[in-house]
Amino acid sequence: MSLKEQLFADLKTAMKEKDTIKKDTIQLIRSGVLQIEKDNKVELDDEGVIEVISKQLKSRRDSLPDYEKSGRQDLIEKLNKEIEVLLSYLPEQLSEDEIQKIVEDAIAQTGASTIKDMGKVMGIVTAKAKGRADMKIVGGLVKKMLQGK
C-alpha cells in the first residue's frame, strides 16, 4: 500500500472515530500533496509524500516555541498531537548518535575543515537523512563540529 493510499485509509478511519486532530492533519498532508501534483503536473511517489510531510512537521516544530512563549497550553497540546500524527507517517527518525555518525562521515568524505565547507557537508548529510532527521538539528551539529576543528 502506497503512502497516499495509507493516508486515505487513515483519513476514513479518523472520520469514523471522530478524531478531528488526526483528520485535519491528514487532510493538510493530502492537500499539500495535491497542490504539488497539480502545480508540477506530476504524480508524487512515497518519497515525494514524505517530503511534504517533513515540511509540515518542520512548520509545526518551528511554531511550537511561539506557542510556549505565549503560554497557550491548549495549542501546544494540539500541536504536539499533530506532530505525533506526522511522525507516524515518516520513516523511523535517526537518533542523535546516528546523525552525528552521518555528519562525521560526511566531513571525512568532503575533507571539510572550516565553516565555509558547511554546504558540501550538508549536501551529503541531507541526502542520507532526508525525512529521518530534523535538518535544524543536523545544521547545528554540522556547524558545531566544523567550528570545533
Structural summary, described in words:
The protein has 149 residues and is mainly alpha-helical. It has two domains: 3-89, Uncharacterised protein YqeY/AIM41, N-terminal domain (Hypothetical Protein Yqey, Chain: A, domain1); 96-147, Arc Repressor Mutant, subunit A. It contains seven helices and no strands. The chain has helices spanning 3-16, 20-40, 46-70, 73-89, 96-110, 118-129, 135-147. It starts with a helix and ends with a helix. The mean pLDDT is 91.
Task: Considering the chains and any ligands shown, give keywords for the structure.
2 domains; YqeY/Aim41; 7 helices; mainly alpha; 149 residues; Hypothetical Protein Yqey, Chain: A, domain1; Arc Repressor Mutant, subunit A
Layout: helices, strands, pairs:
Layout: H1 3-16, H2 20-40, H3 46-70, H4 73-89, H5 96-110, H6 118-129, H7 135-147
